[in-house]
Amino acid sequence: MKKILRILITLIVIMALSACNSGSKTDSSEEENTTNAPANSSENSNNSSTQNLQDIDLSMLGEMEIVKDGGFSFRPIIGYELNISGGMVSMTAPGADSDVGPIFQLMGWKNEAQKTNEQLYEQLKNETDMQVGAPGEIQVAGLQGISADISGENNGKAMQGRVVMVMVNDTQQFILMMGSPQTDYDKIAPYFDSLVASINFNEMESLPPSSGLESGKYVFTNGNEVKDLIVYEEVVYTATLGGLVTWRLDSGYSMHYTPLDGMGHANAYSVTYCEIPEPRILVGTSSGISNYDPNTGLWDQTSLAPEESGVGTSRIDRLYCDQANNRLIIGYYGLGILDLSTGAFQQYNDKSGLLWNAVSDITVNGKDIWIANGHKGISVISGEKITNYSLENNIPDERANALAFSKDGTLWVGASKGLMSFKGGKWTLYGSDSPAKIADINELEINADGKIWATTASMGGGSLCQFNTATADCDIKVEDVDNQGFIAMALSENGNPIVGTNKAVSVFENGALKSFKTEDYLISNMVDSLASSPDGTLWIGTNAGIQVLDPANPNSSWTTYRQKEFSAMGGNWASGIAFDPDGTSWVSITNGSASRYQLDSWTMFEDIKSFDCVAIDSQGQAWFGDDSKGIIVLGPDGSQVMKLTTAEGLPGDNVQAILSDPTGVLWIGTDQGLAKYENGKLETVFGKDSTQLPNKYIRALALDENGVLIIGTFTGVAKYDGTEATTLIDFLKDGYVKARLTSLAVTAVGQILVGTDNGLLTSDDGTTWEMITTEQGLPSNYISALAIDQYGAIWVGSNGGLLQIVP
Asked: What's the structural domain count of the chain?
């Protein structure tokens, strides 16, 4: 039936497209007119021959079919092949001729352009090669329509049919067409009359706007925040807070890996090459070790350490592959030693004799393991013996960060006060009073010819120093071009240092640093707030600034607001963002002052310091909530309107959530229960002693698709209809005992999204729940913010970056 289908479908689509480009525009109130009101009266008709469709036999039709996308319902012809796609329906007779049918087509659609029935008829007559007869009036579901005969030829075969057109309202249109062999027309015509008599018009479900993006998950992280790096076969592997980034030294080509590719977590803190026995790049993340195969480019999900070690759920700060002794040494909560041959695992911590549980660096001399903890000195594990070096046994500086042994057996230590050496039981400090004048040393490397390279990470910038042991000076000293501290360092195969900062990877060659940076838009992987603005853009609050993107084109340039470029901002770390209908944005700032962005200008409000959330009421007033100071309300002009604390009746002064509903009620979530502010009156809805909620500590609030209040508490979620609260999920009772709620959102189709510190909980019905984690592609399991854009995409903010889920 492809040919005849194409004839009628093409005709209908032409009419639908033409309707988009003609007529006058209507506002939203006109588009939402009820479908029961006729769009045209009989006095506008050009032909008075109204067809009476009452008392028509419907026994040839089946059960009613509702076409929501088309805004109509009908009863299909029994025995015909039925196909429904969106707002279009086709019915084909058994054994129909591929050129002339019989076939029926129905379609309903809505456009911004207004039309009349007469305009539809003229459009049909002018835009088809078929012959269109004189129009006649017809009643369809009580609405005035136009009917006409149509005829023509297809591949030399005569076709005859009929068409009915109805303007359901000014913008909602409906058309029914029939085509049949001319010789069969009289036999098929009764089906047409019965079909018309079965039609009813329904409220058309408007499809949400489409971003045009392919369904799937899209991650946005910053791969320039380097924490550690290694070099293997002229490729630099960088552990960043936005995933693993690889750089080819010969071409500068980079690859970026996140949990969408198989990593365990986007936050990576350490990296090493190790043969286990297969070659692997081991990446220490916030949740264990991820194994990358450099030969295949794939991630190996094999767990290295036993489950009881806690390695798989811990942040891994340091990794050292002791290939000579076939051991992997892991710095996490204390130190873990994995025997790569047997799988045996030993764990050491402060209870075992270590000075401290933190691990800033690891090195090995023979079989002895040396550990710097960055705070209390150095520990050495030699067999079953642990020896500690602290102020008590004359170490010059306990804040030891980096370790390296030279060929003569001297231990070199990068420390806060400078560079230390240890040999023959004697410590020597080369500090700020030495010719090198270096301090805050973060990394050490010694190349094959014995040259010592040290990096510093001081306030205001860092430096790379090639230290001369004879002169106690830097033979080479280079400052970072971005005024960043050097956090990571490794040596290339020719002995040149490669360093990492919070902004780049740089290679030292020919006396200068050559930087490599990923082209990532996200300025920080700590995303703390998200909000959709009235103009459809998405605002992202990070700890390094506020960014704005187009959710339909997130790979286009982003706008960035930071205090160093916009001095009137109250700070960089946006903990909450809310909008007036006119697009004015109000922002609560952590470690800063609340701010307003209006008419391309920023204003700060210094009296509202380090508040946590913000909402806008129906009068355009900004309500700021704090974790200890209650609420401060600012008027549209920025003047203070009022304060609300426990003294004024709040259940608690720790306010983490404020929501303004369409009726003008302000809902306030505190650590001691729920309150509402209505008509100038503050009232406690659920107090500290209430048992109707999973927990009295309320962290987030949202409205579902029907306007019902959804309450996110510390350990569960409830809905409140204004009379009764119903628990939807209780973490402590429903199998999520480790989860604590952090954020909450509801999509336009009613899907509930619950951000926790252990992943994202989702439910389509409020009863059945699914936990999404990094295993399904989340950058991090700590969800700090949620938002739904106008296209229905879900945006998930975390401490590992940003994820867009396109439905």
From this structure: 1
